[in-house]
Amino acid sequence: MTQWNPAQGASSREVRSEEFEIIDKFQPPAEHGLALTIGLFLLIASPIVLFYLLLQLHLVNIPYWDDYDSILAFMIHFVGLKGFSEKIFLLLFTQHNEYKIIFGNILFVLEYLVTGSINFIYLQIIGNLFVLLLLFSIYKIFSYQMQKKYNRLIYFVPVPFFIFQLQYWNTLDWASSALQNITVIPFVILSLYYLSKKNTRDFYISCVFLILAVFSSGNGLFVIPLGLLMLFQTKQFHRMAPWTILSIILISMYFYNYSFGTGRELSLDGYLKHFDVIYALSFLGSAASNNNYHIASILGGGFLVVFLAMIFMGVYKTNPALFYTVLFVIISALVVSMIRSKLGISESLSSRYRIYSDVLLVTTYIFMVTTYLDSRKMILFFACLLAIPFCIYSDLVNYPHLMQRYNQLENGVSSWRMTGYGLTYPFEKRANALMYKAMKLKIYSPPILEKQ
Question: pTM for the whole thing?
């Protein structure tokens, strides 16, 4: 097999591009090129269209779980403040459980200022659309080593089938979850990608995505050390100082008035004590199983083997954004195991986190198809053979969960209007209080359903 040798130095991308030109025989005759290109676009678009059609069927303007505190309670507090500086302070420093979701807060406020109320359907749609940004960010790191546009389309075919499926249904059609768990991943990938480009304009773009990543979720902070490591490795020493200054500002903002005990009553020492290797492996491999952490752990271990292969093959030199994206997911798994393992090993298979494992499926494919050049066609064939059934099976298995939650929310609001009980939140008294307060302030009003 022809493999890439990282020792080839600064001209690696040019040399590698030439190898792709020589090996790839997929370029069609000119008269067939347009038709085949359109066919490829349609094939790539098919799981995307199906994905959004299924999601569109179950949008409902009703809060779900964390939406009550992270959105309704936040907006009630925001509207109640009089001073501009007080509102900005709340926007930037409010903590929800272990996280500060500043990006989400900004969107909640913008929706309220533009429309005059909170509509969870709009927020759900925005959150769902960030999966498209995730696909774009993956395409950027994929195309880093794919120079010919036609080749990129062919070899990109399996990717949307791995991403646009319902394994992570529990973070879709859910406003607060999607605007945290989905948004942070493309922001991280794009920050790493533009940082690897080694020019001033792209460095500034990377810094913007760094800010958005940190503002989206706590694990966006992991880009800070990863970025410093990349800058050092790629000898961009003159950019380390501004990156560090921006990082200090972001860290200071994030941890200002931060409580390590919020929600779970854990100290920092407690987080470290709850670290669980099996939990982390199961988290990484959760794409393999909905309910069996042993199977998931095996896949997670396989991803670690692939990561070691990336180190050995020098992917941190040939495609830094790909390498550091994988490292970001691994670090996220380690930290989540410290925070969530106390809730039980089954939490590692939670649907709302499974998108991280799906991303690892894609990065593994990209690594293989851009490393083992002689076997690229075979890798593409088997990736399609895996990705398409994977997408169909995931939709079939998980679509009923979307339907069940949709019915649960509608039935809950119907029951609440008649009896005062039924809202989908563990703390029903608090949910009732927040609902009545939001309605009184005209921040939000639940829909009146036909079945009522």
Answer: 0.90
